[in-house]
């Protein structure tokens, strides 16, 4: 018995004293981190290394533990590893290619972490060496381009895109990432387009490809000629543009569907009242990643496509089945098990279902409708900084659309009618509109509905002045098109007029608070000039003569608001303060509105007195208006149908730099080690031929 215990004790002692065995790949990494060339003792070192399963955490962690000086001592070995990775990309054996791609990811990220330190060594020199940088990076980009364009493994294509996204996003500010100079010189633009034009590749990699393109377009875009901007602006291939539109539509549709599911979930039970009060409260839970990360990246891609490429405007109206109503295919089988990188992409079933042929019984949709629905969700709550940025970008995209002649043509087309179910913020004083009661109308009606909804729901202490200005500008640009082309749109214009008058009322009620932060007279002037546009040119674009009469009725009915506005701006324009000039502009702009009020009010009072009526009905007021147009004198106001066109570089550069920075951080954060896991991936390459 004692002998057994002794044996047991010896065994315990022996096992405790043994050091844990290191994996062979770890031992090989350790050799690379020595100053000696690892291939001196083992000529097959590099060949063997790329047959080993990559230990990403160890390799990247090891790089991060070294300071700049220590890293410089092993610079030759790092250069050698980088060069052998590039050579391995040309190998026939896919396992070596997979391992080389993942090793490159770890190298780039690990070495870039050291670039933040005070050592100040050059990242390109550290990775490849100055003398070989141009040739090495050329070979790397050519290899990635070949892998992306080949008909081979979808898993390899996925890893190539991951590596490219890793390379693009290693710095928060992508314009400071000097490696991207080589991505500009050795373009992969055509490879990205090929992915987007092929249904299979698009289904597997479209999301990553679109995000990658959006980021590359933003590299030093205000400083140099970016080849990706030039090339994107002239793409005219229909399949490619439609493919890009489908990827964007699918990502936004997925967001809309998840929002709707959560909304329905929260509307049941005790918590529905609380949820209704704060709008989309669920954003704070696990879906935050979807609402913020996915859509900021994909929205940027949509913006760049709309802003840079006029041919893409046609894609906005390209019909496809309503994705939320589609049934998914019986067995969608993705060819790669690897989760697409970056920000959470839509699931494969959504993507494949969207490319089914149109069904006569299914409500058709298009990218613009999907985008409008998305906008109606994110614009509900602008208190959160990310959502504020998303809301702003939505309005910038709509601004570009509202300025485009072709976009306006299909927005106002009577033969293109859709039922657009926008999300409306729950409010105590109004009932939720039933989806089934929505009429089919030209798409411009949905855009106007969205603008009216925003105007009505954001009059609060933290007043989003910038968003309001953009909102009014969009309405103005649409009216300019209607006036120019004499489009008589059958729209409930009263809702817009009422919203605008209530906005003026809000500005006056909160004059002191708002003036401490904003020049409210800029916005007030824009609102007044919208009314001037209706007064001066309304007879050319309002649907019926009675619509024009109703405009006058609303101005007369709400005259107290205009009187109060005039009193306020007159007071400030006669004082020698900072608001003298902007207030006086509003004073002059009110001349015709005041003329209407001063002309018709006495007539209405006289009519009431003669007919012994204490309170006139709407019809009676309209009768007075119609019979007294002849004696009304209005002043012709110039420039009402003119506007300054959108310019990104001069006004929005700071916004886009910050937005791209935020997207870069999120994409990098989502490049987690588990998305680069080999276990499932290598099943595709289980044997080496």
UniProtKB/TrEMBL annotation:
Domain of life, source organism: Eukaryota
InterPro entries: ARM-type_fold (IPR016024), ARMD3-like (IPR039868), ARMH3_C (IPR013636)
Zinc-finger is among the record's keywords: no
Main location: membrane
Signal sequence, renumbered to the chain: none
Cellular component, GO annotation: cytosol; membrane
Tagged with keyword Membrane: yes
Armadillo-like helical domain ranges (all copies): 435-671
SMART domains hit by this protein: DUF1741
This protein's UniProt keywords: Membrane, Transmembrane, Transmembrane helix
Location in the cell: Membrane
Pfam families on file: ARMH3_C
PANTHER family: ARMADILLO-LIKE HELICAL DOMAIN-CONTAINING PROTEIN 3
Protein name, per record: ARMD3 protein
Source species: Heliornis fulica
Biological classification of the source: Eukaryota, Metazoa, Chordata, Craniata, Vertebrata
Gene: Armh3
